[in-house]
Amino acid sequence: MRVDIQSLGTYNRLAQEGAEHAAASLTQMTGIETYVDVTNVTLMSKQDVEDVFGGTEFVGVQIGLGGGLSGETALAFDQESAASIVDVLVPGASADDDGEFDEMAQSGINEIGNIMMGGFVDGWADYLGASVDMTPPNYVERAGTDVLPDGALDRAEEEHVFVFESQMTAVDQEIDAYIYMLPEYGAFADMLAASDDHDDAIPMDKLTVFDEMTRQGAQQAAGNVSSMTGIETDVDVSRLSFVPIEDVPNTARDEVYIGTVMEFKGTPGGYLAILFDEPSARTIVDATVPMELDEPLGEMGESAIEELGNIMTSGFIDGWANVLQTSIDHTPPELVHDMGTAILSPIAGRLGQSQEYAFLMDSTVVTPEGEFNCELYAIPDERKLKEALDSLLVERSDQLEADQESLF
Amino acid sequence: MPPKVLIVDDSDFMRNLLREILEENFEIVDEAENGVEAVELYREHDPDLVMMDIVMPIRDGIEATSEITGSDPDANVIMCTSVGQEEKMKNAVKAGADGYITKPFQKPNVLEAIDDVVA
Prior knowledge:
The complex is a heterodimer of chains A (about 400) and B (about 120). With about 400 residues, chain A is α+β, with helices and mostly antiparallel strands. Chain A has helices at about 5-30, 45-55, 80-90, 105-130, 185-190, 205-230, 280-290, 300-325, 340-350, 380-390, 405, and strands spanning about 1-5, 35-45, 55-65, 70-80, 130-135, 140-145, 160-170, 175-185, 200-205, 235-245, 255-265, 270-275, 330, 335-340, 355-365, 375-380. Chain A folds into two domains: about 1-190, 3-Layer(aba) Sandwich (Chemotaxis protein chec); about 200-395, CheC-like (Chemotaxis protein chec), CATH 3.40.1550.10. In chain A, the strands form two sheets. In chain A, strands 2, 3, 4, 5, 6, 7, 8, 10, 11, 12, 13, 14, 15 and 16 form a 14-stranded antiparallel beta sheet that branches. A two-stranded antiparallel sheet of chain A has the order 1-9. Chain A starts with a strand and ends with a helix. Chain B has about 120 residues and is α/β, with parallel strands linked by helices. Chain B is globular, with a radius of gyration of 13 Å. The two termini of chain B are about 15 Å apart. The chains are: A alpha+beta (about 400), B alpha/beta (about 120). The interface of A and B includes residues 314 and 332 of A. Chain A: It holds the Pfam family CheC. Chain A: It comes from Haloplanus ruber. Chain A: Keywords: Chemotaxis, Hydrolase. Chain A: GO terms for molecular function: hydrolase activity.
């Protein structure tokens, strides 16, 4: 199936506008001013979705969709955010010793979910020119992906599915809310399908294969970290999202990072940012530079971070090059030390001159005990990515390693 | 007399690491930060071996290797790089490289690769 990028962009915009309506409803009902942080469409397997949700305890509202748009949705709050909402919405409502809200609180959350999701789907119905039916809201308190309606991930057992995710944040309180929508795969695929002669179409099966190659690249990069530092690392989350280019910076956490940015040139071309939070950068430098350093990292420490960025980049992109039987050059690493959004903004600005949306591949490398966290953001140039996918031979997708011994 | 080695890498950190690995058994004649410096220092020191990075500013390691082996066909050059792309390796072979080590490396891998080339 070839997917029309413009259609995917249109549906992403509908989700963004829907989330803005939902956030406005939340603000109106609670007086808590909220805004939409980011809306993306992600292509995920069941395991990917489970990795993203983790074991977080959620308070949620499940609603099924039918009619012009069929699928499943959930509005989810973490426990603390839900408690803050309940405090405002149902003063005097209580939670028992296990944190379970009483009936009135549940009813309040259910209603807010109903109203927010109504706002979310209205724009879709208008665009599609068909009514979208909603099931009655179902209040749940569950962990991880169990907050999603039962059966929502059945299809993801066998193949990747589209997941729309909108994150809403309160302006001056620690409140986060998430809207997840999983459209029914077949119907949504039909909505996205492009004709064969469509220039601006991406082959979806190859995009899925490329996503898997990227995941393995992230594993290789994590392995390189372990080899260089002696610190055991693994890839926690790896996912491929489709986001408006102006939202790319908002996908980074609100945190200061030290790391490297590189431009990779070839097919595909684009940018790669490898970002460590400050304590992780310190951990790496302590593990690789056996000397006392000036604060914060010293020249040699910064050089170690640059070199690690260099080595991780190769781990990441070499597999693409070997499968595609091409070479991908990258610039020497540029050391960065700033807020995540400030680091990604110039990249989005450069790519934004020629594209409205980005396929963002982000991976998180962590240690088992969580003392180390590294975020990798690969943002290919859309045109170059399309060229790469067109030339990708799926049957070669396991040829990630170079045959060095035959050459030397 | 221990064999003379020229280290070429744009990273202070990596030059330091290679120096630590090699200085016990080799004479480190100099260090270069890019391909242009590498060619100049090769001419100046005529080393027995060059440990050459690929991705460097100003001039990359494959171009520098090509120029070194073009003027001295007996030059021994080992690419010492993070790049693990087959096409790059083929380019390195064409440029006259004798060996290829991918970072991150351990000391035994480096010494083994040097043995294969310089023995």
